């Protein structure tokens, strides 16, 4: 009821309430001053005599309170400046009362008006602060409140707390600081804790987010702190200084992030997935595609497992430099070996595995952007990298005696209707073939859907389109996709390696698929805009339907067969799927190599249409016809 009353009041009604309360407080304070003043008598005759003065001061208080902005100020903004206005207001009314009394009645000593001013200051400030707290609690009781820990009790942290206290949707709970002299103190009315208390605070106080409010420290130190906090079960954000926000650098508009729960269609699984340090601790591990979205996250999570050596393979010099630099800053004692080269370079891959005595290979290198690989000039490159590159890595792992080989695959490999998906399925088939006849190396694969925030994914695309004013492009109003976080994807790959027995295909229970149209609408509205459509022609940003691209599905799948086996964790399943014989795989790869060497795209499409699941044949042939027509 109180919530409905508060939100239903207009601004004029609220100001009228403020004036009314002040009109009650003024006579009460004057009466209290009469009672408390030692040289004044608060009898009936005195009260009757000062009644005109009370009325005058009450009317003057309403006028003066409006003039100094006291009754026009929002409760949410009542802080130090509001108290200063209140002091000016109280002193002015005390001076006015003393002047009127001395010029007319002369009944009351000056001390009464001094006490009156002080009591009016206390009472006026107190009821506003109290009412503000009550109002904030009423608002917060009817909406989801984000509870945050502020890491850094310095100036930026205190400024952040002051700002957040005016927002009923965010509640600062406590400070975290590395400085022992600040720990256990109360700053800005919040307790300061040591970093060791973060995990217990997150659980006990239901923390949703940790904000790093330390802009003056170096970026590597912030990265190390963020790395330590990555498994606490809530989001971690870094805050620039408020001075930097108005500096010379261009200020870019930010699109408000959509709730991860809404994107995933389920709760995040990081806390539900078990640790895997035992499977990688002290091991010598090679990661291909180490500079990519998945590869770099695999490397970061492997740091917690304390491997003996981490070999990074990537053909992009900049991506390899970036991840190598980051890992060295995060973990000084770890042996990191950057290898600049392609997974297609068989001599280099064999030499690297033998030289560094690699025990585990995580193969994340792939061309993954469906429209790019589907274009005619890129089909052969995509097949060469994804299929033959995987074959090179798997053969090198087998020859070098690697214990475990994990292939990172995709849901687009299930009954593929495009070249990229077919290339990943053929890569799976080649790995499954080696798994059936390689007793020394355990080969396994892991499939997952779209990864939030990865390069080329739908989220960055929509953000860019919203920032440019739209339209947001959607291929089909009914298209759906499975989503997972980069952290979940990397942890699933590592778990697959620890569960692998040979030839396994692991999938994650990813909940319900997310309608992409719903996602587009959420991101537009989250950025503060309205969707422009037939129902709202005056909206800001349009969702434009462009039509399905060649080879694109309406709905992705994670399984080819419905047969499933359990694993040690209920959220991770093992698929039972048919695979090609050794002779069939050898034939398919031989024909594919010949087509690639001859630069014969039609022959290459025929190979994958022949050997990949029959459901994909018609779509792949149709894709070839589209390309020829274009």
Automatic annotation (TrEMBL):
InterPro entries assigned: NAD(P)-bd_dom_sf, Polysac_CapD-like, Polysaccharide_Synthase-Rel, SAM-dependent_MTases_sf
Xref: SUPFAM superfamilies: NAD(P)-binding Rossmann-fold domains, S-adenosyl-L-methionine-dependent methyltransferases
Keywords associated with the record: Membrane, Transmembrane, Transmembrane helix
Signal sequence interval, chain numbering: none
Chain segments annotated as transmembrane: 16-37, 49-70, 82-100, 106-131
Pfam families attached to this UniProt entry: CoA_binding_3 (PF13727), Polysacc_synt_2 (PF02719)
Residues of the Polysaccharide biosynthesis protein CapD-like domain: 285-576
Domain of life where this protein originates: Bacteria
Family: Belongs to the polysaccharide synthase family.
PANTHER family: POLYSACCHARIDE BIOSYNTHESIS PROTEIN EPSC-RELATED, UDP-N-ACETYLGLUCOSAMINE 4,6-DEHYDRATASE
Name of the protein: Polysaccharide biosynthesis protein
Natural source organism: Ponticoccus alexandrii
């Amino acid at each position: 009821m109180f919530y409905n009353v508060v939100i239903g009041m207009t601004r004029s009604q609220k100001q009228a309430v403020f004036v009314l309360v002040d009109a009650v407080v003024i006579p009460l304070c004057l009466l209290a001053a009469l009672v408390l003043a030692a040289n004044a008598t608060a009898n009936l005759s005195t009260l009757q005599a000062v009644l005109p003065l009370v009325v005058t001061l009450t009317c003057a208080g309403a006028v003066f309170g409006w003039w100094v902005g006291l009754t026009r100020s929002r409760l949410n903004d009542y802080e130090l400046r509001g108290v200063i206005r209140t002091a000016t207001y109280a002193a002015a009314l005390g001076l006015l009362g003393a002047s009127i009394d001395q010029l007319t009645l002369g009944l009351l000593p000056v001390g009464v008006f001094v006490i009156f001013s002080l009591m009016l200051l206390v009472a006026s400030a107190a009821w506003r602060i109290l009412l503000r707290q009550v109002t904030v609690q009423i608002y917060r009781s009817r909406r989801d409140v984000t509870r945050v820990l502020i890491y850094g009790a310095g100036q930026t942290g205190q400024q952040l707390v002051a700002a957040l206290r005016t927002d009923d949707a965010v509640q600062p709970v406590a400070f975290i600081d590395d400085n022992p002299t600040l720990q256990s103190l109360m700053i800005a009315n919040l307790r300061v804790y040591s970093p060791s208390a973060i995990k217990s605070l997150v659980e006990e106080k239901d923390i949703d987010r940790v904000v790093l409010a330390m802009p003056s420290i170096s970026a590597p130190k912030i990265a190390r702190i963020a790395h330590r906090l990555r498994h606490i079960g809530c989001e971690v954000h870094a805050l620039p200084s408020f001075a930097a926000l108005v500096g010379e650098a261009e200020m870019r508009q930010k699109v408000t992030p959509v709730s991860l729960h809404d994107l995933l269609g389920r709760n995040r699984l990081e806390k539900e997935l078990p640790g895997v340090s035992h499977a990688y601790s002290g091991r010598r591990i090679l990661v291909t595609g180490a500079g990519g979205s998945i590869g770099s996250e695999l490397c970061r999570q492997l740091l917690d497992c304390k491997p003996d050596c981490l070999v990074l393979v990537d053909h992009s010099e900049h991506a390899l430099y970036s991840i190598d630099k980051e890992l060295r800053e995060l973990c000084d004692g770890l042996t990191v070996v950057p290898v600049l080269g392609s997974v297609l370079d068989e001599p280099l891959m064999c030499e690297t595995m033998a030289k560094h005595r690699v025990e585990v290979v995580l193969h994340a290198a792939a061309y993954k952007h469906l429209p790019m690989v589907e274009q005619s000039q890129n089909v052969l490159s995509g097949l060469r990298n994804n299929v033959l590159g995987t074959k090179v890595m798997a053969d090198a792992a087998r020859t070098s005696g690697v214990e475990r080989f994990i292939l990172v695959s995709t849901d687009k490999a299930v009954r593929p209707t495009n070249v990229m998906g077919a290339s990943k399925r053929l890569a799976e088939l080649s790995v499954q073939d080696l798994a059936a006849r390689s007793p020394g190396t355990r080969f396994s694969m892991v499939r997952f859907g779209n990864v939030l925030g990865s390069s080329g994914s739908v989220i960055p695309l929509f953000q860019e389109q919203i920032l440019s004013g739209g339209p947001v492009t959607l291929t089909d109003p009914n298209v759906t996709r499975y989503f997972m976080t980069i952290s979940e994807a990397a942890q699933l790959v590592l778990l697959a390696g620890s569960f692998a027995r040979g030839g396994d295909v692991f999938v994650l229970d990813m909940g319900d698929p997310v309608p992409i149209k719903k996602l587009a609408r959420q991101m537009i509205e989250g950025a503060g805009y309205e969707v422009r459509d037939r129902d709202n022609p005056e909206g800001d940003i349009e969702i434009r339907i462009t039509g399905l691209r060649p080879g694109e599905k309406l709905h992705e799948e994670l399984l080819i067969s419905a047969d499933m086996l359990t694993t040690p964790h209920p959220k991770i399943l093992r698929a039972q799927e048919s695979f090609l014989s050794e002779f069939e795989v050898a034939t398919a790869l031989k024909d594919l190599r010949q087509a690639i060497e001859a630069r014969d795209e039609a022959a290459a499409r025929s190979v994958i249409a022949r050997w990949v699941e029959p459901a994909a044949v018609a779509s792949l042939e149709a894709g070839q016809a589209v390309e020829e027509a274009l």
